[in-house]
Amino acid sequence: MDIKQIQDLIKFVAKSGVNEVSIEETDFKITIKTNQEPTFVNATVAPQVLPQAHAPQPLPVSPVAVVPIAIDDNKQTPIKSPMIGTFYRSANPDKPPFINVGDEVSVGQVVCVIEAMKLFNEIESEVSGRVVKILIDNATPVEYDQPLFLIEAV
After folding, report:
1. Which of 63, 77, 151, 79 is nearest to 114 (CA)?
2. Mean pLDDT, to the nearest integer, of 102-109?
């Protein structure tokens, strides 16, 4: 986990209202606590000692392409991803999508879920209007602040 991911996690925890989050992996442990006080992060990284001859080669990572979206500022407002994760249009594969093109959405309505660190986070609309376009395919990785939907004021 790099510093950018930690910063994004801190922002998400502060915004979500969760009081404490702890994540423990084989090579690090992180705890984030909030309570109307400053956020504290305790992170430790255990050194990994491997013989040079047996050191695994890093796997190639293909970056997520973020394509700029043309938005008519007077009519359309994007709903953006508040975190890094995997975008899902429904709560599970057996359920219908939260919203479709042409649907009316209101402030606070759940529009999708984003899985981040094995947690499924409901994403609520911050605007009211009609869904003009869904910009992301289901089960696709998304970046922080990436537009997910275009909403047109009604």
Report:
1. 79
2. 96
Predicted pLDDT at 39:
43
| For residues 36-42, average pLDDT | 48
| Closest among 140, 132, 151 to 114, alpha carbons compared | 140
CATH for 76-152, among 2.60.40.10, 2.60.220.30, 2.40.50.100, 3.40.50.1580? Answer: 2.40.50.100
DSSP structure class, residue 8: H
Burial zone of 118 (CB within 10 Å; 0-12 exposed, 13-18 middle, 19+ buried): exposed
| DSSP 3-state of 110 | strand
Q: What is the pLDDT of residue 77?
A: 94
CA angle 94, 98, 102 (to 5 degrees): 125
